[in-house]
Amino acid sequence: MDCYTANWNPLGDSAFYRKYELYSMDWDLKEELRDCLVAAAPYGGPIALLRNPWRKEKAASVRPVLEIYSASGMPLASLLWKSGPVVSLGWSAEEELLCVQEDGVVLVYGLHGDFRRHFSMGNEVLQNRVLDARIFHTEFGSGVAILTGAHRFTLSANVGDLKLRRMPEVPGLQSAPSCWTTLCQDRVAHILLAVGPDLYLLDHAACSSVTPPGLAPGVSSFLQMAVSFTYRHLALFTDTGYIWMGTTSLKEKLCEFNCNIRAPPKQMVWCSRPRSKERAVVVAWERRLMVVGDAPESIQFVLDEDSYLVPELDGVRIFSRSTHEFLHEVPVASEEIFKIASMAPGALLLEAQKEYEKESQKADEYLREIQELGQLTQAVQQCIEAAGHEHRPDMQKSLLRAASFGKCFLDRFPPDSFVRMCQDLRVLNAVRDYHIGIPLTYSHRYKQLTIQVLLDRLVLRRLYPLAIQICEYLRLPEVQGVSRILAHWACYKVQQKDVSDEDVARAINQKLGDTPGVSYSDIAARAYGCGRTELAIKLLEYEPRSGEQVPLLLKMKRSKLALSKAIESGDTDLVFTVLLHLKNELNRGDFFMTLRNQPMALSLYRQFCKYQELETLKDLYNQDDNHQELGSFHIRASYAAEERIEGRVAALQTAADAFYKAKNEFAAKATEDQMRLLRLQRRLEDELGGRFLDLSLHDTVTTLILGGHNKRAEQLARDFRIPDKRLWWLKLTALADLEDWEELEKFSKSKKSPIGYLPFVEICMKQHNKYEAKKYTSRVGPEQKVKALLLVGDVAQAADVAIEHRNEAELSLVLSHCTGATDGATADKIQRARAQAQKK
Description:
Number of strands: 29
Largest sheet: 5 strands, antiparallel
Helix content: 40-55%
Radius of gyration: 48 Å
């Protein structure tokens, strides 16, 4: 353990800092880092270098080279820079490289040097040029802040949803500020800048002067400033050699340190661990690295090469031409276990395990000591936690073996934390590998980043096999894990233009099959975006959902194929969508010919035209010589469009002609009858007044009867051959509605009723006229006599008739109408008749 703590450096009495090597860089840089624009993404992200920038006069004629490396120095991309002068580089939260040009245009590149998009920071920036720029991260996304040649600031807090904000002017600012940075307070981005001994805070509304509390006197200029990873703390380096540390609100001072160096540092970044009480800042000069905090002493390192600092959530990455190192505060669990002469439970358990491997009895002594103090559970937890903070696999294994050894002596220690740590460390060690180059730490970066984001970053690096192995190892749901990664792989596969469409489609289908959560339409859309239309069509053949196939086929201008797919799906809404698209795309003749080859589509389009485009429907019927439907169309049109009787009759005549051509004589005759009825109704309106037009034949007869025009009604019935039964019903109903009982009685005696006389009884009772109803009961036939008597309420006589008929059904019907109080004698009479019938 003494050897293990050799690289620990104390900062004050309560914290140790250590620096260990992540990778030995093998990137063969031809120039110093100081001669390049450098950008390194957080969370162990990639490194971008722009070689031979325009600021280097001796290479002004050489075209710059943009190179992208993993954190281990493995090359990811290299391309000649063919655009304008670049002022600043930076990485977005999605690991996209933002290149801010002098003219205010920001070019966005992918991890492998593929151009994504570009956007401008506005006309004012274009006119005044860019002096300096910063890429910063907020909870909304990644932002860009610009300092123009007019010494004005413009920023956008989210490049994904670009909204430019022109910051207020700083009074009296005639030259570039000595230093500036972006702050995020209350979910709003601000600019903090130094002009001589003064600090100014710019928000969207105003420019305000601010003063750090407790700043040492004699400051005439601020040379450097740094904001912590979480935007909670601020560090200021003054020309007096003092480093002021406090909150970003500039209301609280944490500490101040005199480094006795007045030369401006190359870089200054925060190095602190979340939830730690220690706050430290790392300052880098040409050949010196200093860690300062709330302690009278500092930690100093000698830099053998030009180095670059990358702030992280729980430390600082430091890379140079030859090495990549990580500097951070030693976690509490590691400190308690490994510090010299430690008697912490975890330290004793680690020693006990080592002695056990040596088969020494000291193992039992250490275990007894821990158990007597009741700290064995704590010891196991300390070893598990410390294993997560270790970068070297051998130390991880040693601590986990100690934890596993201690668990054997505990009855109810939950295994979840131990198993989860083993899984997480295996994943971390896999991505930390030199060939992968993502040096994540466990406690904060891995947990902060989440496994889903880590998988996304592996996919961005096209490390599909490793990503799939991690998903299978962690047993992630297929939709969130393997399926999603295979879909990304397929989208990358379609971009390989040196492979034939047939081979690519076959390879994708063999690999994906029916994997749940994979959309072939999304892959086909990517293929179409790459200019491989035929490949996209082949991939769509594997897509089981027609609703996903059709929109892309329409986008690819394969409308007829889209129509076939929509019809196969049986989804009428989908078919309508394609039909409307085809209608706008094709001329009228080609559109109709396409419909003729698709009967289902033609039928659906006719349904659409019935409600939306009647003239088009007429053209369709004419083209198909469909005289039957054409006749029906003219009949509907005669009532929908024509108001004049002449126009309506003309339309009906056209319909009749169409029906004759269709050899539908019944429809033709019915149409001619309707024409005759319309002409007659117009004549009746002219002669009698009132409203007759558009009434049905029955309603016309009824209206005439109600108006007292019985002879005209009878004549109309003869002209249109209305059957006697129907005419009697019409007249009976009309006279009853008029309550013309005398005329109704005359009508009943005019001749023998073809409908019988029970309807007379029913109609009278419907009008609540029992007196008139009784007049017709005697004329009702024997088979309906009982029902008629019951309708008028003569239960006793109905019983006599039923007994006379000896009809069981009639007897039961009468019995159901008997009430206990008034018809008791009648009921007894029926029961006796039944009894006598049964005896016989």
